[in-house]
Specification:
Layout (H helix, E strand, L loop, with lengths): L7 E6 L5 E7 L4 E8 L4 E9 L1 E2 L5 E2 L6 E6 L7 E6 L8 E4 L7 E5 L2 E4 L4 H6 L7 E4 L10 H9 L3 E4 L21 E2 L5 E4 L9 E4 L5 E15 L2 E12 L8 E6 L5 E7 L2 E4 L5 E5 L2 E5 L10 E5 L18
Parallel strand pairs: 11-12
Antiparallel strand pairs: 1-2, 2-3, 3-4, 5-7, 6-7, 7-8, 8-9, 10-11, 13-17, 14-15, 15-16, 17-18, 18-19, 19-20, 21-22, 22-23, 23-24
Length: about 325
């Protein structure tokens, strides 16, 4: 019996327009882009990519007209690349091969974009419209969510309430019997290796149980965003869940006055506030809206179910293939 692939959803909101985009992933190497009209809650289904879009290194321009994204398919000629497109299509208006390292970018304004690992010479080689500026990212790299996401969250009104710190290897939970001395675990893998095999230099491995967080935080990572008398709290216990997402996140709705938890959403792909005060979130392949006057009574409206979407080749219309 075939099993349905897991579906992960990640949304980006335009900060000066009632527009958002949805990145739907599932199976792992199939990604679809959708455009979301926040006023009507209509979704325009767009292009698919046979590969991976690294959603936490993407950004939407203030108007929602342009998307910068980092993607890869591990195939020639580019393997990994950063591109600019017009949603809901991924067809590149400009493209920069990343050749290793981080990709992606962050919009400072509608026509000013910061790109990871980019020289000014490379930026000037691209055919860009008048007034469009490309600059090299000069900030720090890294962070639990990646440098692009963490700076985007701060820009969009989130507060980093508690910084997640990796546990030392000595404090990590033993999964299946004692961890041998000199053992190590591959980041993002469900295998633990040891150089203490029966033969010198031989590697042995043990499977780590499904649901285990391979790289736990202590304390966990917490972000909060206030809207009226409510706080939306995003919580991440670590990185790389076996059989699950690389960024396992949960969300809670909290009373800003008392600090009490009103609603624990549990494992949730994404959540944020709409400009009108409604709460938006993505969970189990579906997108929901909770109207601002229904927050305390916890009455969500399901807007769309994307669990059964299947890959299909879609070509961008000609007007979406040019600036």
């Amino acid at each position: 019996m075939s099993t349905r692939p897991s579906v992960n959803l990640y949304c980006l909101l335009a900060r000066e327009s009632p527009v958002a985009v949805v990145l739907r992933r599932g199976p792992a190497r199939r990604v679809q882009l959708l455009r979301w009209d926040l006023q009507t809650d209509c979704f325009q289904k767009g292009q698919w990519l046979k590969g991976r879009v690294y959603e936490r290194y993407c950004d939407l321009s203030p108007s929602g007209r342009y998307l910068v994204y980092w993607a890869g398919n591990h195939k020639a000629p580019y393997y990994h690349w950063t591109a600019l497109s017009r949603p809901p299509y991924l067809t590149a208006l400009s493209l920069w091969p990343t050749h290793g390292g981080y990709g992606g970018g962050l919009f400072v304004s509608e026509k000013r974009l910061l790109l990871s690992f980019l020289s000014k010479r490379v930026a000037k080689e691209k055919n860009l419209p008048d007034g469009f500026e490309i600059e090299q990212w000069m900030g720090e790299y890294g962070g639990a969510y990646g440098h692009i996401t963490e700076n985007r969250l701060l820009r969009d009104g989130w507060h980093h309430e508690q910084i997640g710190l990796f546990r030392s290897s000595k404090d990590r939970e033993v999964v299946a019997g004692p961890v041998r001395e000199n053992s190590f675990r591959i980041l993002g893998s469900d295998l633990e290796f040891s150089d203490a095999g029966e033969q010198p230099g031989q590697l042995e491995y043990r499977k780590v149980r499904k649901g285990k967080i391979l790289n736990p935080f202590d304390p966990i990572d917490i972000w909060r965003k206030k809207r009226g008398r409510h706080l939306l709290e995003m919580r991440m216990p670590g990185l790389h869940e076996v059989g699950g997402p690389a960024y396992p996140t949960g969300y809670r709705l909290i009373c800003a006055e008392t600090g009490g938890v009103i609603w624990d959403f549990g494992r949730t792909d994404w959540a944020d506030w709409d400009a009108n005060g409604d709460l938006l979130y993505a969970q189990a392949g579906c997108i929901f809206r909770v109207h601002s006057d229904k927050l305390d009574s916890k009455e969500p409206n399901k807007l769309i179910d994307l669990t059964d979407a299947e890959f299909e080749p879609i070509e961008a219309p000609s007007e979406f293939q040019r600036w």
